[in-house]
């Protein structure tokens, strides 16, 4: 079963600001789902984002 994170938990894991996390979510660069009014990020999507970010930097 996949782990789902709140935006606050996700930004703590990747060490970005609240504003930057908001930009990632609204631009679609980081996939997320809405559950009612709440936004959730699959841990696998967060890992994919980080891997792509590392690959671009290399």
Automatic annotation (TrEMBL):
Residues 4-53 form the Helix-turn-helix domain. One of its GO terms (molecular function) is DNA binding. InterPro entries: HTH_17 (IPR041657), SinI_DNA-bd (IPR010093). This is Excisionase family DNA binding protein. It comes from Catenuloplanes indicus.
């Amino acid at each position: 079963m996949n782990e789902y994170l709140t935006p606050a938990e996700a930004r703590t894991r990747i060490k970005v600001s609240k504003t930057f996390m908001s930009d990632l979510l609204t631009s679609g660069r980081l996939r997320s789902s809405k559950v009612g009014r709440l936004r959730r990020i699959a841990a696998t999507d967060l890992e994919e984002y980080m891997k792509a970010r590392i690959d671009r930097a290399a």
